[in-house]
Design brief:
Number of domains: 1
Structural class: mainly alpha
Strand order of the largest sheet: 1-2
Protein name: Putative membrane protein 87
Helix content: 55-70%
Organism: Achromobacter xylosoxidans (strain A8)
Number of strands: 2
Number of helices: 15
Keywords: Membrane, Transmembrane, Transmembrane helix
Distance between the termini: 22 Å
Radius of gyration: 21 Å
Order of helices and strands: HHHHHHHEEHHHHHHHH
Shape: globular
């Protein structure tokens, strides 16, 4: 069959589904593994930063692939549920806040990144919806990618951290975006590990923790520990026993981290064992206080851009500042109802890869939005897309 016909003919739904899956897998490769390779290559001076930080370019390349995948795959006929409508409302409020920012001449240093993020939310939602979570061949390729990225990170470590965080190569405009690299690595891990056998999963968790330690992104490091715990909780037959052992394990690890503080390279992550004297934690607490002050001045409509670029609250209050009370409530309800829905409605799929990915991402988002991240954090749309993917599979539709 000619390629043009193959991409438009729905007479063979299995072939259309297969093409859609691989288009989504290609978009995944462009956005995440390629991003990590690009960032490291730029910092090592292997290539020039022709594509800037690459994120915007990756989104722009991936969007047509995902739109094509959405068009050619057989469409499900299940209507959106409350969670999906809440996500639509959230995106509308997000877009309206950008319009308000344009009207009031908010600095482009705030507006431009948020506008790019809005587009990225659409792309990442489509990725979560269309990616073949748990499909055998895609998982095998994702596992090869996982190992390749691990080797890339380990082989480019200096001083206990990936390319020495803070190092700027000649010709590079800025240092490695270690938080985005960690996020990309987490997504690559979720594509590879949940369908694997138990020993492979546990080995993967250990290797991922090592990689994230070397990357040095503390929020993502903690989020991944929660992600791994969520997956194994869902897989466990004796859940109460698993929780008890998990609590003991966390206490032991915190004690070890505190004892080893300052003795290992890359001890920024080990500093999580004592946040009372951590400069980053103190700075974030100050930004939260400023957010409350901004909210008190405009509690209902918000005060978009009422902070210096980068000085936003690193928690869910950032949504209240930018989008007002309605935006804050919408985001809180979105996470609450999504979590409740998978536990109450879709628990029959608790050991399927798409359920594991959805549950793990939702738990990570709740943790990070409570304590560490701006409302534009890019794991959120992937989680909601994976949730929509789960709904369609539960209804008997392939993705």
């Amino acid at each position: 069959m000619p390629y043009a016909t193959m991409f438009t003919d729905r007479s063979n739904p299995n072939k259309s589904e297969g093409v859609a899956r691989w288009l989504a897998f290609g978009a995944f490769c462009i956005m995440f593994p390629a991003y990590i390779a690009y960032q490291i290559s730029v910092q090592k001076g292997v290539i020039h930063p022709y594509l800037g930080g690459y994120f915007s370019a990756g989104i722009a390349i991936s969007l047509p692939l995902l739109l094509l995948a959405a068009c050619i795959k057989p469409h499900s006929r299940i209507p959106p549920d409350l969670v999906e409508w809440l996500f639509v409302l959230f995106m509308l409020l997000f877009g309206m806040s950008l319009a308000v920012g344009v009207y009031f001449n908010v600095t482009p240093e705030i507006l431009k990144p948020n506008a790019i993020t809005w587009v990225s939310f659409v792309v990442l939602y489509l990725l979560g919806l269309l990616f073949p979570w748990g499909e055998r061949t895609a998982t095998l390729y994702a596992q090869f990618i996982f190992v390749g990225l691990l080797l890339l990170i380990v082989l480019n470590t200096a001083g206990g951290q990936l390319v020495g965080v803070g190092y700027i190569a000649p010709g590079a405009d800025k240092e490695l975006n270690y938080q985005a690299v960690a996020l990309a690595y987490i997504v690559a891990t979720l594509a590879a590990l949940p369908p694997a056998r138990v020993l492979i999963r546990y080995a993967g968790y250990i290797l991922s923790i090592i990689a994230l330690y070397l990357i040095g992104a503390r929020s993502e490091f903690i989020a991944f520990v929660l992600i791994a715990g969520t997956i194994e909780f869902c897989m466990a037959k004796r859940k109460a026993q698993f929780v008890a052992l998990g609590i003991v394990g966390i206490v032991v690890l915190l004690a070890l981290a505190h004892a080893m503080l300052g003795t290992l390279p890359g001890s920024r992550i080990l500093g999580l064992s004592d946040v009372s004297e951590d400069a980053s934690s103190i700075a974030r607490a100050a930004l939260t206080s400023e957010a409350w002050l901004s909210i008190s001045e405009a509690p209902f409509l918000g005060n978009y851009g009422s902070y210096l670029p980068g000085n936003y609250a690193h928690n869910i209050l950032s949504a209240w500042v930018d989008m007002g009370l309605l935006g804050f409530v919408t985001l809180a309800l979105l996470l609450t109802f999504a979590g409740a829905s998978i536990m109450l409605t879709y628990r029959g799929q608790i050991r399927t890869p798409v359920f594991l990915v959805t549950a793990a991402l939702l738990m990570a988002n709740i943790l990070l939005l409570l304590f560490a991240k701006y409302y534009t954090y890019q794991l959120l749309p992937i989680a909601i897309g994976a949730y929509a993917n789960l709904r369609r599979r539960d209804a008997g539709y392939s993705t």
